[in-house]
Amino acid sequence: MHRKTILQAKEDLLQKKYSALELTQAIYQRIEKVEPKVQAFVHLTKDIALNQAQEADRKLAAGQDAPLLGIPIALKDLICMQDALTTCSSKMLDQFIAPYDATVVNRLKKAGAVIVGKTNMDEFAMGSSTENSWHHPTMNPWDLSRVPGGSSGGSAAAVASHECLAALGSDTGGSIRQPANFCGVTGLKPTYGRVSRFGLVAFASSLDQIGPMTKTVADSALLMNVIAGSDPQDSTSANLELPNFMNSLEKNLSGLKMGIPKEYFTSGLDPEVEESVQEAIKTLESLGMEKVEISLPHLQYSVATYYIIACAEASANLSRYDGVRYGHRSKKSDNLLEMYMNTRQEGFGEEVKRRIMLGTFVLSSGYYDAYYLKGQKVRTLIKQDFENAFEKCDVIIAPNSPITAFKLGERVNDPIKMYLSDIYTISANLAGIPGISIPCGTSKKNGMPIGLQLMSKHFDEESLIAVGHQFQLNTEHHLKQPPL
Amino acid sequence: MSDKIDIQKIAKLARLRLTESESDKLYGYLEQVVDYMSQLNQLDTSNVQPTSHILPINNVFRDDETSKSKNIDYLTAAPSKNKGHYEVPKII
Protein backbone atom coordinates (compact mmCIF):
# COMPACT_ATOMS: atom_id res chain seq x y z
CA MET A 1 0.00 0.00 0.00
CA HIS A 2 2.77 2.44 0.94
CA ARG A 3 4.18 2.19 -2.60
CA LYS A 4 1.11 3.79 -4.18
CA THR A 5 0.99 7.22 -5.74
CA ILE A 6 -1.62 9.64 -4.46
CA LEU A 7 -3.83 9.08 -7.50
CA GLN A 8 -3.63 5.30 -7.14
CA ALA A 9 -4.39 5.42 -3.42
CA LYS A 10 -7.33 7.76 -3.98
CA GLU A 11 -8.81 5.28 -6.42
CA ASP A 12 -8.23 2.37 -4.03
CA LEU A 13 -9.80 4.25 -1.12
CA LEU A 14 -12.88 5.06 -3.22
CA GLN A 15 -13.17 1.42 -4.25
CA LYS A 16 -12.71 0.39 -0.60
CA LYS A 17 -9.72 -1.85 -1.32
CA TYR A 18 -8.40 -0.61 2.01
CA SER A 19 -9.37 2.09 4.48
CA ALA A 20 -7.60 5.37 5.17
CA LEU A 21 -6.74 4.01 8.62
CA GLU A 22 -5.16 0.91 7.10
CA LEU A 23 -3.19 3.04 4.67
CA THR A 24 -1.93 5.30 7.46
CA GLN A 25 -1.02 2.29 9.59
CA ALA A 26 0.85 0.77 6.65
CA ILE A 27 2.80 4.02 6.32
CA TYR A 28 3.78 3.92 10.01
CA GLN A 29 4.84 0.28 9.64
CA ARG A 30 6.99 1.29 6.71
CA ILE A 31 8.44 4.16 8.75
CA GLU A 32 9.25 1.78 11.58
CA LYS A 33 11.04 -0.50 9.15
CA VAL A 34 13.13 1.95 7.11
CA GLU A 35 13.50 4.97 9.36
CA PRO A 36 16.43 3.55 11.37
CA LYS A 37 18.38 3.54 8.11
CA VAL A 38 17.10 6.69 6.39
CA GLN A 39 16.24 9.05 9.27
CA ALA A 40 14.04 11.24 7.11
CA PHE A 41 11.80 12.47 9.94
CA VAL A 42 12.51 14.62 12.95
CA HIS A 43 9.19 13.85 14.59
CA LEU A 44 6.05 11.93 13.81
CA THR A 45 2.53 13.17 14.41
CA LYS A 46 0.97 9.74 14.77
CA ASP A 47 -1.89 10.66 17.13
CA ILE A 48 -3.00 13.50 14.87
CA ALA A 49 -2.61 11.31 11.75
CA LEU A 50 -4.62 8.39 13.10
CA ASN A 51 -7.45 10.75 14.03
CA GLN A 52 -7.34 12.35 10.60
CA ALA A 53 -7.40 8.90 8.96
CA GLN A 54 -10.44 7.84 10.98
CA GLU A 55 -12.16 11.08 10.11
CA ALA A 56 -11.34 10.44 6.42
CA ASP A 57 -12.89 6.96 6.70
CA ARG A 58 -16.07 8.44 8.17
CA LYS A 59 -16.26 10.89 5.28
CA LEU A 60 -15.55 8.18 2.72
CA ALA A 61 -18.29 6.02 4.25
CA ALA A 62 -20.68 8.98 4.00
CA GLY A 63 -19.87 9.28 0.31
CA GLN A 64 -18.00 12.56 0.66
CA ASP A 65 -14.96 13.29 -1.44
CA ALA A 66 -12.06 15.70 -1.14
CA PRO A 67 -8.88 15.97 -3.20
CA LEU A 68 -6.59 14.32 -0.62
CA LEU A 69 -9.07 12.44 1.53
CA GLY A 70 -7.10 9.89 3.59
CA ILE A 71 -3.75 10.53 1.84
CA PRO A 72 -0.65 10.40 4.11
CA ILE A 73 1.57 13.43 3.58
CA ALA A 74 4.73 14.67 5.33
CA LEU A 75 5.74 18.27 5.99
CA LYS A 76 9.19 19.79 5.98
CA ASP A 77 9.87 20.90 9.51
CA LEU A 78 9.73 24.61 8.75
CA ILE A 79 6.02 24.55 7.92
CA CYS A 80 3.94 25.32 10.99
CA MET A 81 1.24 22.91 12.08
CA GLN A 82 -0.78 23.78 15.16
CA ASP A 83 0.12 21.77 18.28
CA ALA A 84 3.07 20.07 16.54
CA LEU A 85 6.76 20.77 16.92
CA THR A 86 8.24 23.01 14.20
CA THR A 87 11.97 23.01 14.84
CA CYS A 88 13.51 24.00 11.48
CA SER A 89 16.10 21.38 12.50
CA SER A 90 17.59 24.01 14.80
CA LYS A 91 18.44 23.96 18.47
CA MET A 92 16.94 27.46 18.47
CA LEU A 93 13.43 26.04 17.93
CA ASP A 94 13.99 22.63 19.47
CA GLN A 95 10.91 22.92 21.71
CA PHE A 96 8.81 25.25 19.55
CA ILE A 97 5.19 24.18 19.20
CA ALA A 98 3.44 26.17 16.50
CA PRO A 99 0.39 28.03 17.78
CA TYR A 100 -1.31 28.04 14.37
CA ASP A 101 -1.47 26.25 11.02
CA ALA A 102 0.38 27.51 7.96
CA THR A 103 -2.02 28.30 5.11
CA VAL A 104 -0.77 25.26 3.18
CA VAL A 105 -1.44 23.03 6.21
CA ASN A 106 -4.88 24.49 6.58
CA ARG A 107 -5.52 23.70 2.90
CA LEU A 108 -4.13 20.17 3.19
CA LYS A 109 -6.37 19.53 6.20
CA LYS A 110 -9.43 20.87 4.39
CA ALA A 111 -8.56 18.60 1.47
CA GLY A 112 -8.66 15.63 3.84
CA ALA A 113 -4.92 14.88 4.05
CA VAL A 114 -3.38 12.85 6.86
CA ILE A 115 -0.23 14.54 8.20
CA VAL A 116 2.20 11.81 9.21
CA GLY A 117 5.12 13.86 10.50
CA LYS A 118 7.72 16.54 10.05
CA THR A 119 10.79 15.89 7.94
CA ASN A 120 14.43 16.72 8.46
CA MET A 121 16.19 19.60 6.73
CA ASP A 122 19.28 21.73 6.85
CA GLU A 123 18.94 24.15 9.76
CA PHE A 124 16.63 27.01 8.70
CA ALA A 125 16.85 25.56 5.14
CA MET A 126 20.48 26.62 4.82
CA GLY A 127 22.30 23.85 3.06
CA SER A 128 22.32 21.43 0.16
CA SER A 129 22.78 18.09 1.92
CA THR A 130 20.63 18.00 5.11
CA GLU A 131 23.90 17.56 7.01
CA ASN A 132 23.39 20.93 8.68
CA SER A 133 20.48 19.57 10.73
CA TRP A 134 20.81 19.98 14.48
CA HIS A 135 18.95 16.66 14.96
CA HIS A 136 20.82 14.20 12.76
CA PRO A 137 21.74 13.77 9.10
CA THR A 138 19.34 12.04 6.68
CA MET A 139 20.63 9.29 4.43
CA ASN A 140 19.92 8.86 0.73
CA PRO A 141 17.64 5.80 0.38
CA TRP A 142 19.52 4.76 -2.79
CA ASP A 143 22.85 4.59 -0.97
CA LEU A 144 22.95 5.20 2.77
CA SER A 145 26.51 6.56 2.59
CA ARG A 146 25.30 9.43 0.41
CA VAL A 147 23.36 12.62 1.17
CA PRO A 148 19.72 13.05 0.12
CA GLY A 149 20.41 16.63 -0.99
CA GLY A 150 18.92 19.60 0.73
CA SER A 151 17.59 21.52 2.25
CA SER A 152 14.35 19.49 1.87
CA GLY A 153 16.35 16.25 2.13
CA GLY A 154 14.04 14.67 4.67
CA SER A 155 10.96 15.22 2.49
CA ALA A 156 12.73 13.81 -0.59
CA ALA A 157 14.06 10.76 1.28
CA ALA A 158 10.66 10.12 2.88
CA VAL A 159 8.90 10.12 -0.51
CA ALA A 160 11.60 7.95 -2.13
CA SER A 161 11.44 5.45 0.77
CA HIS A 162 7.62 5.35 0.68
CA GLU A 163 7.35 6.69 4.23
CA CYS A 164 4.58 8.97 2.94
CA LEU A 165 2.75 9.25 -0.37
CA ALA A 166 3.96 12.81 -0.89
CA ALA A 167 5.54 15.66 1.01
CA LEU A 168 5.82 19.42 1.01
CA GLY A 169 9.20 21.08 0.82
CA SER A 170 10.40 24.64 0.37
CA ASP A 171 12.78 25.98 -2.24
CA THR A 172 14.89 29.12 -1.84
CA GLY A 173 17.75 28.23 -4.19
CA GLY A 174 16.93 24.66 -5.23
CA SER A 175 15.90 23.11 -1.94
CA ILE A 176 13.00 21.17 -3.46
CA ARG A 177 14.51 20.36 -6.85
CA GLN A 178 18.03 19.29 -5.83
CA PRO A 179 16.94 16.76 -3.15
CA ALA A 180 14.18 15.50 -5.45
CA ASN A 181 16.92 14.97 -8.05
CA PHE A 182 19.27 13.22 -5.59
CA CYS A 183 16.51 10.90 -4.31
CA GLY A 184 14.86 10.15 -7.67
CA VAL A 185 11.50 11.80 -7.03
CA THR A 186 9.55 14.67 -8.60
CA GLY A 187 9.95 18.11 -7.02
CA LEU A 188 8.14 21.24 -8.17
CA LYS A 189 9.06 24.77 -7.16
CA PRO A 190 6.09 26.94 -8.12
CA THR A 191 6.36 30.56 -9.25
CA TYR A 192 7.24 32.95 -6.45
CA GLY A 193 3.88 34.06 -5.06
CA ARG A 194 1.89 31.07 -6.34
CA VAL A 195 1.67 29.38 -2.93
CA SER A 196 1.10 31.24 0.32
CA ARG A 197 4.11 31.45 2.61
CA PHE A 198 2.03 32.25 5.70
CA GLY A 199 3.27 29.88 8.41
CA LEU A 200 6.45 29.01 6.52
CA VAL A 201 9.44 29.93 8.67
CA ALA A 202 11.19 32.59 6.61
CA PHE A 203 14.69 32.17 5.22
CA ALA A 204 14.93 34.61 2.27
CA SER A 205 11.56 36.25 1.75
CA SER A 206 11.99 37.30 -1.89
CA LEU A 207 13.02 33.76 -2.91
CA ASP A 208 11.21 31.25 -0.65
CA GLN A 209 8.44 29.13 -2.11
CA ILE A 210 6.61 26.01 -0.90
CA GLY A 211 6.02 23.16 -3.32
CA PRO A 212 5.14 19.48 -3.69
CA MET A 213 7.56 16.54 -3.65
CA THR A 214 5.89 13.48 -5.09
CA LYS A 215 6.35 10.15 -6.85
CA THR A 216 4.92 11.46 -10.12
CA VAL A 217 4.23 14.73 -11.91
CA ALA A 218 0.51 13.91 -11.87
CA ASP A 219 0.58 13.83 -8.06
CA SER A 220 2.31 17.21 -8.03
CA ALA A 221 -0.49 18.60 -10.21
CA LEU A 222 -3.05 17.34 -7.73
CA LEU A 223 -1.18 18.85 -4.77
CA MET A 224 -0.85 22.16 -6.61
CA ASN A 225 -4.63 22.27 -6.95
CA VAL A 226 -4.81 22.09 -3.16
CA ILE A 227 -2.00 24.39 -2.02
CA ALA A 228 -1.84 27.12 -4.69
CA GLY A 229 -3.78 30.35 -4.65
CA SER A 230 -3.84 33.79 -3.11
CA ASP A 231 -4.04 34.24 0.63
CA PRO A 232 -4.95 37.46 2.43
CA GLN A 233 -2.41 36.53 5.11
CA ASP A 234 0.49 36.59 2.63
CA SER A 235 0.53 39.90 0.77
CA THR A 236 3.09 38.50 -1.69
CA SER A 237 0.80 35.69 -2.77
CA ALA A 238 -0.43 36.43 -6.27
CA ASN A 239 -4.08 37.26 -6.71
CA LEU A 240 -4.65 35.41 -9.98
CA GLU A 241 -7.28 33.04 -11.19
CA LEU A 242 -6.08 29.48 -10.69
CA PRO A 243 -6.08 26.89 -13.43
CA ASN A 244 -7.04 23.30 -12.74
CA PHE A 245 -3.53 21.86 -12.88
CA MET A 246 -4.89 18.36 -13.57
CA ASN A 247 -6.07 19.57 -16.99
CA SER A 248 -2.42 20.00 -18.02
CA LEU A 249 -1.95 16.24 -17.83
CA GLU A 250 -3.96 15.89 -21.04
CA LYS A 251 -1.99 18.44 -23.01
CA ASN A 252 -0.32 17.43 -26.26
CA LEU A 253 3.28 18.59 -26.60
CA SER A 254 3.48 18.94 -30.34
CA GLY A 255 4.75 22.34 -31.41
CA LEU A 256 5.87 23.32 -27.92
CA LYS A 257 9.33 24.83 -28.00
CA MET A 258 12.02 23.72 -25.60
CA GLY A 259 14.98 26.02 -25.07
CA ILE A 260 18.34 24.45 -24.41
CA PRO A 261 20.60 26.91 -22.56
CA LYS A 262 24.14 26.36 -23.78
CA GLU A 263 25.64 27.69 -20.53
CA TYR A 264 24.24 24.70 -18.64
CA PHE A 265 26.25 22.24 -20.70
CA THR A 266 29.79 23.33 -19.95
CA SER A 267 32.62 22.15 -17.75
CA GLY A 268 31.56 21.08 -14.30
CA LEU A 269 28.65 19.06 -15.65
CA ASP A 270 29.11 15.34 -15.01
CA PRO A 271 29.23 13.63 -18.47
CA GLU A 272 26.77 10.97 -17.28
CA VAL A 273 24.29 13.67 -16.26
CA GLU A 274 24.74 15.38 -19.62
CA GLU A 275 24.16 12.11 -21.46
CA SER A 276 20.89 11.45 -19.60
CA VAL A 277 19.66 15.00 -20.17
CA GLN A 278 20.47 14.77 -23.90
CA GLU A 279 18.59 11.47 -24.00
CA ALA A 280 15.59 13.17 -22.35
CA ILE A 281 15.73 15.96 -24.93
CA LYS A 282 15.51 13.32 -27.68
CA THR A 283 12.51 11.74 -25.96
CA LEU A 284 10.79 15.13 -25.80
CA GLU A 285 11.58 15.72 -29.49
CA SER A 286 9.97 12.39 -30.30
CA LEU A 287 6.87 13.65 -28.45
CA GLY A 288 6.64 16.58 -30.85
CA MET A 289 8.60 19.26 -29.04
CA GLU A 290 10.82 21.52 -31.05
CA LYS A 291 14.38 22.23 -29.90
CA VAL A 292 15.85 25.75 -29.93
CA GLU A 293 19.17 26.92 -28.60
CA ILE A 294 19.00 29.73 -26.07
CA SER A 295 21.48 31.61 -23.95
CA LEU A 296 21.34 32.58 -20.27
CA PRO A 297 24.61 34.52 -20.23
CA HIS A 298 24.62 35.51 -16.56
CA LEU A 299 24.37 31.96 -15.20
CA GLN A 300 27.93 32.07 -13.90
CA TYR A 301 27.04 35.04 -11.67
CA SER A 302 23.97 33.44 -10.15
CA VAL A 303 25.65 31.76 -7.17
CA ALA A 304 27.38 34.95 -6.03
CA THR A 305 24.20 36.99 -6.55
CA TYR A 306 22.12 34.44 -4.71
CA TYR A 307 24.36 34.28 -1.65
CA ILE A 308 24.37 38.06 -1.33
CA ILE A 309 20.60 38.37 -1.56
CA ALA A 310 19.63 35.22 0.35
CA CYS A 311 22.04 35.90 3.21
CA ALA A 312 21.07 39.56 3.44
CA GLU A 313 17.42 38.62 3.74
CA ALA A 314 18.24 35.78 6.14
CA SER A 315 20.22 38.03 8.44
CA ALA A 316 17.15 40.26 8.75
CA ASN A 317 14.65 37.40 9.05
CA LEU A 318 16.64 35.54 11.67
CA SER A 319 16.97 38.60 13.88
CA ARG A 320 13.69 37.51 15.43
CA TYR A 321 15.44 34.65 17.27
CA ASP A 322 16.52 36.60 20.29
CA GLY A 323 15.17 34.44 23.10
CA VAL A 324 12.21 36.72 23.90
CA ARG A 325 9.07 35.49 22.21
CA TYR A 326 9.83 31.88 21.37
CA GLY A 327 12.59 29.34 21.05
CA HIS A 328 15.78 28.84 22.96
CA ARG A 329 16.89 31.33 25.62
CA SER A 330 20.37 31.32 27.12
CA LYS A 331 20.34 30.84 30.86
CA LYS A 332 23.67 32.49 31.53
CA SER A 333 22.88 36.15 30.98
CA ASP A 334 22.06 38.90 33.43
CA ASN A 335 21.13 41.66 31.04
CA LEU A 336 19.12 41.86 27.85
CA LEU A 337 21.89 42.42 25.31
CA GLU A 338 23.94 39.56 26.71
CA MET A 339 20.87 37.37 26.64
CA TYR A 340 20.38 38.13 22.91
CA MET A 341 24.00 37.43 22.08
CA ASN A 342 24.33 34.27 24.17
CA THR A 343 20.99 32.92 22.96
CA ARG A 344 22.06 33.32 19.35
CA GLN A 345 25.48 31.83 19.99
CA GLU A 346 23.97 28.77 21.64
CA GLY A 347 20.94 28.37 19.39
CA PHE A 348 22.36 28.68 15.88
CA GLY A 349 24.57 26.14 14.12
CA GLU A 350 27.72 26.88 12.17
CA GLU A 351 26.25 27.38 8.70
CA VAL A 352 23.47 29.63 10.00
CA LYS A 353 26.04 31.80 11.77
CA ARG A 354 28.09 31.98 8.57
CA ARG A 355 25.13 33.21 6.59
CA ILE A 356 23.97 35.69 9.22
CA MET A 357 27.49 37.12 9.30
CA LEU A 358 27.70 37.27 5.51
CA GLY A 359 24.26 38.86 5.23
CA THR A 360 25.05 41.41 7.94
CA PHE A 361 28.31 42.23 6.17
CA VAL A 362 26.76 42.85 2.74
CA LEU A 363 24.12 45.10 4.31
CA SER A 364 26.52 47.00 6.55
CA SER A 365 27.40 50.62 6.02
CA GLY A 366 30.23 51.00 3.52
CA TYR A 367 29.55 47.67 1.81
CA TYR A 368 25.85 47.91 0.95
CA ASP A 369 26.36 49.44 -2.50
CA ALA A 370 29.32 47.24 -3.41
CA TYR A 371 27.60 43.97 -2.54
CA TYR A 372 23.89 44.11 -1.77
CA LEU A 373 22.88 46.73 -4.32
CA LYS A 374 25.24 45.17 -6.88
CA GLY A 375 23.60 41.79 -6.23
CA GLN A 376 20.14 43.27 -6.77
CA LYS A 377 21.25 44.75 -10.08
CA VAL A 378 22.75 41.50 -11.31
CA ARG A 379 19.49 39.87 -10.25
CA THR A 380 17.79 42.16 -12.79
CA LEU A 381 20.20 40.93 -15.49
CA ILE A 382 19.48 37.30 -14.61
CA LYS A 383 15.75 37.96 -14.71
CA GLN A 384 16.12 39.64 -18.11
CA ASP A 385 18.05 36.62 -19.42
CA PHE A 386 14.99 34.51 -18.77
CA GLU A 387 12.60 37.08 -20.27
CA ASN A 388 14.69 37.06 -23.45
CA ALA A 389 14.88 33.27 -23.48
CA PHE A 390 11.11 32.87 -23.12
CA GLU A 391 10.59 34.93 -26.25
CA LYS A 392 12.07 31.97 -28.11
CA CYS A 393 10.73 29.00 -26.17
CA ASP A 394 7.95 27.78 -23.89
CA VAL A 395 9.98 25.60 -21.57
CA ILE A 396 13.68 25.55 -20.72
CA ILE A 397 15.26 22.11 -20.46
CA ALA A 398 18.46 21.74 -18.46
CA PRO A 399 20.24 19.52 -16.01
CA ASN A 400 18.99 20.04 -12.46
CA SER A 401 22.22 19.38 -10.59
CA PRO A 402 25.66 19.11 -12.22
CA ILE A 403 26.36 15.98 -10.18
CA THR A 404 24.57 13.06 -8.57
CA ALA A 405 24.27 12.65 -4.79
CA PHE A 406 27.64 12.97 -3.06
CA LYS A 407 28.92 11.19 0.04
CA LEU A 408 28.11 12.38 3.54
CA GLY A 409 30.97 14.55 4.79
CA GLU A 410 32.37 15.13 1.31
CA ARG A 411 31.45 18.81 0.94
CA VAL A 412 30.28 19.94 4.35
CA ASN A 413 33.60 21.61 5.24
CA ASP A 414 33.91 23.43 1.94
CA PRO A 415 31.06 25.98 1.82
CA ILE A 416 31.82 27.35 -1.66
CA LYS A 417 31.94 23.88 -3.17
CA MET A 418 28.63 23.14 -1.44
CA TYR A 419 27.11 26.40 -2.75
CA LEU A 420 28.23 25.65 -6.31
CA SER A 421 26.28 22.39 -6.32
CA ASP A 422 23.16 24.59 -6.60
CA ILE A 423 24.31 26.52 -9.68
CA TYR A 424 21.59 25.20 -12.02
CA THR A 425 18.65 25.74 -9.69
CA ILE A 426 19.43 29.11 -8.09
CA SER A 427 18.62 31.35 -11.04
CA ALA A 428 14.96 30.22 -11.16
CA ASN A 429 14.56 31.59 -7.63
CA LEU A 430 16.30 34.85 -8.51
CA ALA A 431 13.99 35.25 -11.51
CA GLY A 432 10.95 33.96 -9.56
CA ILE A 433 10.02 31.45 -12.27
CA PRO A 434 8.75 27.90 -11.65
CA GLY A 435 10.97 24.85 -12.03
CA ILE A 436 10.57 21.12 -11.68
CA SER A 437 13.02 18.26 -11.29
CA ILE A 438 12.06 14.86 -12.61
CA PRO A 439 14.10 11.65 -12.76
CA CYS A 440 15.69 11.09 -16.18
CA GLY A 441 18.29 8.39 -15.58
CA THR A 442 20.57 6.52 -13.23
CA SER A 443 24.32 6.84 -12.96
CA LYS A 444 26.21 3.77 -14.10
CA LYS A 445 29.09 4.77 -11.85
CA ASN A 446 27.26 4.94 -8.55
CA GLY A 447 23.65 3.92 -9.18
CA MET A 448 22.29 7.31 -8.13
CA PRO A 449 19.32 9.05 -9.78
CA ILE A 450 19.87 11.83 -12.33
CA GLY A 451 17.47 14.76 -12.59
CA LEU A 452 16.06 16.74 -15.51
CA GLN A 453 15.05 20.32 -14.85
CA LEU A 454 12.25 22.13 -16.65
CA MET A 455 11.63 25.85 -16.17
CA SER A 456 8.88 28.05 -17.56
CA LYS A 457 7.46 31.56 -17.47
CA HIS A 458 6.01 33.16 -14.37
CA PHE A 459 2.77 31.39 -13.38
CA ASP A 460 3.10 28.79 -16.11
CA GLU A 461 3.44 25.70 -13.94
CA GLU A 462 0.98 24.14 -16.38
CA SER A 463 3.66 23.75 -19.06
CA LEU A 464 6.00 22.06 -16.58
CA ILE A 465 3.25 19.66 -15.56
CA ALA A 466 2.28 18.97 -19.17
CA VAL A 467 5.82 18.25 -20.34
CA GLY A 468 6.83 16.41 -17.17
CA HIS A 469 3.78 14.18 -17.23
CA GLN A 470 4.15 13.24 -20.90
CA PHE A 471 7.81 12.48 -20.22
CA GLN A 472 6.84 10.16 -17.36
CA LEU A 473 4.17 8.47 -19.50
CA ASN A 474 6.88 7.64 -22.02
CA THR A 475 9.79 6.75 -19.71
CA GLU A 476 10.29 4.57 -16.65
CA HIS A 477 12.97 6.46 -14.72
CA HIS A 478 10.47 7.61 -12.07
CA LEU A 479 9.37 4.02 -11.46
CA LYS A 480 12.78 2.79 -10.30
CA GLN A 481 12.93 1.98 -6.62
CA PRO A 482 15.75 2.43 -4.11
CA PRO A 483 17.09 -0.88 -2.72
CA LEU A 484 15.68 -0.54 0.78
CA MET B 1 39.34 42.65 -0.84
CA SER B 2 41.24 45.85 -0.34
CA ASP B 3 40.38 46.41 3.32
CA LYS B 4 40.04 43.88 6.12
CA ILE B 5 36.66 42.70 7.30
CA ASP B 6 35.99 43.82 10.89
CA ILE B 7 34.61 40.57 12.22
CA GLN B 8 33.86 41.88 15.71
CA LYS B 9 31.86 44.79 14.33
CA ILE B 10 29.80 42.50 12.09
CA ALA B 11 29.22 40.08 14.97
CA LYS B 12 28.01 42.92 17.17
CA LEU B 13 25.62 44.15 14.46
CA ALA B 14 24.36 40.57 14.10
CA ARG B 15 24.00 40.20 17.88
CA LEU B 16 26.16 37.09 17.85
CA ARG B 17 28.66 36.24 20.53
CA LEU B 18 31.61 34.45 18.96
CA THR B 19 34.37 32.47 20.58
CA GLU B 20 37.88 33.21 19.40
CA SER B 21 38.03 30.07 17.28
CA GLU B 22 34.61 30.87 15.77
CA SER B 23 35.84 34.38 14.93
CA ASP B 24 38.91 33.02 13.21
CA LYS B 25 36.96 30.48 11.18
CA LEU B 26 34.29 33.01 10.21
CA TYR B 27 36.93 35.47 9.14
CA GLY B 28 38.44 32.91 6.79
CA TYR B 29 35.00 32.05 5.47
CA LEU B 30 33.94 35.65 4.89
CA GLU B 31 37.17 36.48 3.16
CA GLN B 32 36.79 33.53 0.81
CA VAL B 33 33.11 34.14 0.01
CA VAL B 34 33.42 37.90 -0.35
CA ASP B 35 36.32 37.34 -2.72
CA TYR B 36 34.13 34.96 -4.74
CA MET B 37 31.36 37.59 -4.83
CA SER B 38 33.72 40.19 -6.20
CA GLN B 39 33.35 38.54 -9.60
CA LEU B 40 30.15 40.57 -9.95
CA ASN B 41 32.39 43.60 -10.46
CA GLN B 42 33.17 42.26 -13.92
CA LEU B 43 29.68 43.39 -14.92
CA ASP B 44 28.83 46.96 -15.75
CA THR B 45 25.54 47.64 -13.96
CA SER B 46 25.57 51.43 -14.06
CA ASN B 47 22.36 51.53 -16.10
CA VAL B 48 20.61 48.59 -14.44
CA GLN B 49 17.76 48.98 -11.98
CA PRO B 50 17.96 46.78 -8.87
CA THR B 51 15.39 44.01 -8.33
CA SER B 52 14.23 43.49 -4.78
CA HIS B 53 11.09 41.58 -5.63
CA ILE B 54 10.07 39.85 -8.84
CA LEU B 55 6.32 40.45 -8.75
CA PRO B 56 4.85 43.75 -9.88
CA ILE B 57 3.23 44.29 -6.49
CA ASN B 58 3.49 47.58 -4.64
CA ASN B 59 0.89 48.10 -1.98
CA VAL B 60 -1.56 45.35 -1.20
CA PHE B 61 -4.71 46.62 0.43
CA ARG B 62 -7.63 44.84 1.95
CA ASP B 63 -11.10 46.10 2.70
CA ASP B 64 -11.28 48.01 5.95
CA GLU B 65 -13.60 45.59 7.66
CA THR B 66 -13.49 44.23 11.17
CA SER B 67 -13.09 40.50 11.55
CA LYS B 68 -12.81 38.14 14.46
CA SER B 69 -9.38 37.75 15.99
CA LYS B 70 -7.90 34.30 15.73
CA ASN B 71 -7.69 33.73 19.46
CA ILE B 72 -4.16 32.37 19.37
CA ASP B 73 -2.18 32.45 22.61
CA TYR B 74 1.23 33.46 21.32
CA LEU B 75 2.61 33.56 24.85
CA THR B 76 2.53 29.76 25.08
CA ALA B 77 5.81 29.65 23.13
CA ALA B 78 7.59 32.26 25.27
CA PRO B 79 10.67 31.09 27.18
CA SER B 80 9.67 33.30 30.11
CA LYS B 81 6.43 35.13 30.82
CA ASN B 82 4.72 36.92 33.66
CA LYS B 83 1.10 38.06 33.98
CA GLY B 84 0.40 38.06 30.26
CA HIS B 85 3.69 39.66 29.27
CA TYR B 86 7.01 38.47 27.90
CA GLU B 87 9.63 38.56 30.61
CA VAL B 88 13.25 39.51 29.85
CA PRO B 89 16.39 40.15 31.91
CA LYS B 90 17.06 43.75 32.98
CA ILE B 91 17.77 46.10 30.13
CA ILE B 92 20.25 48.49 31.76
Low-confidence stretches of chain A: none
Strand content of chain B: under 5%
Total of helices of chain B:
2
The greatest inter-chain interface is formed by: A-B, 67 and 52 residues
What does the largest sheet of chain B look like? 2 strands, antiparallel
Element-by-element helix/strand order of chain A = HHEHEHEHEHEEHEHEHHHHEHHEEH
Span from first to last CA of chain A? Answer: 16 Å
Mean pLDDT across all residues of chain A, rounded?
Answer: 97
- Radius of gyration of chain B over all CA atoms, rounded: 23 Å
CATH architecture of the domain at 1-41 in chain B: Orthogonal Bundle
Q: Which class do the helix and strand fractions of chain B yield?
A: mainly alpha
**Number of contiguous helices of chain A:** 15
State the CATH class of the domain at 1-41 in chain B.
Answer: Mainly Alpha
Helix content of chain A: 25-40%
Q: How are helices and strands ordered from N to C of chain B? A: HHEE
- How big is the Rg of chain A? 21 Å
Task: Indicate the topology.
The complex is a heterodimer of chains A (484) and B (92).
Chain A: H1 6-14, H2 20-38, E1 41-44, H3 46-61, E2 72-76, H4 103-110, E3 114-119, H5 153-160, E4 166-171, H6 177-183, E5 186-189, E6 209-214, H7 217-227, E7 257-261, H8 271-286, E8 290-294, H9 302-317, H10 336-347, H11 350-363, H12 368-389, E9 395-399, H13 415-420, H14 423-431, E10 435-442, E11 449-456, H15 461-474
Chain B: H1 7-13, H2 20-37, E1 81-82, E2 85-86
